[in-house]
Amino acid sequence: MRYQQFVDTGFLSGVIWRSAKTLILVALLTGTGIAQAVSIATLNDGPPGSFPENPAPPSPVAMNASSVAPDAVTAPPPSASALPEAPSPHKFWDNENRALFTTVAALSAADFAVTRSILQNGGKELNPVTRLFSGSTAGLAANFAGETAGIIGLSYLFHKTGHHQLERLTPMLNIGASAFAVVYDLNHR
After folding, report:
1. Which among 51, 35, 54 is positioned nearest to 43, based on CA atoms?
2. N or C: which end of the chain has fewer CB atoms below 10 A?
3. Distance CA 91, CA 71 (A)
4. What is the pLDDT of residue 22?
5. pLDDT tens digits, 78-95
6. Dist. CA 30–CA 23, nearest whole Å
7. 42-55 burial, b if ≥16 CB within 10 A, otherwise e?
8. What percent of the chain has pLDDT over 90?
9. Exposure of 24 in the CB half-sphere (CA atoms within 13 A)
10. Distance between CA 151 and CA 174 in Å, rounded?
11. How many CB atoms lie within 10 A of CB 104?
12. 15 pLDDT exceeds 70?
């Protein structure tokens, strides 16, 4: 008598692929962590095994002029003029942000127009958030206007908190996502 094995190979291959992906991710992350580790040998300038019991820095009170070697050269404290000047902060509505926000608004309007056209011809909205507002033209317009206002608001928050690279990156990512959505919608009408 022969026993039949009922093994779902699709399930097993899925488990193997997920395990492999997890293992690769862990290997990449630990490799990065190990590469950034600081060696203990670089922290101690003395010979091996010469770690002090209490490695506390000497207090300024304990140090005086007699504790400095006579032939040691002491540097004057850094003055304010030796520091480089910080770049002047830019205004939020400078030319670059105007161009970025104009592009965000234009692509959002294009995405609205193409999405509305597809929905009127019996198509389906693929974005689950936008799908909530796709019941009416006014709801769809409010969704895309809110998206544009949200991008400008988030960019302004980054500007006010001094994260100027994120301030520029936020509309750029939205431009990429909206451009992809418009191109995808035009190709799948």
Report:
1. 51
2. N
3. 52
4. 64
5. 565 666 666 667 899 999
6. 11
7. eeeeeeeeeeeeee
8. 51
9. 6
10. 8
11. 21
12. no
Q: Model-level pTM greater than 0.85? A: no
Copy the structure tokens of residue 163: 């994260």
User: What would the two tokens of residue 168 be?
Assistant: 């520029």
Q: Is the dihedral of CA 91, 92, 93, 94 positive or negative?
A: positive
> Which is it for the CA torsion 3, 4, 5, 6, positive or negative?
negative
Burial 79-90 (b: 16+ CB within 10 A, else e): eeeeeeeeeeee
DSSP state for residue 67 in the 8-state scheme: G
Phi (first) and psi of residue 169, to 5 degrees: -70, -35
Mean pLDDT, the chain, integer: 77
Q: Does residue 137 have a pLDDT over 60?
A: yes
Q: What is the rounded CA–CA span in Å between residue 105 and residue 146?
A: 11
**Cα(133)–Cα(120) distance, integer angstroms:** 14
Token code pair at residue 178: 């909206």
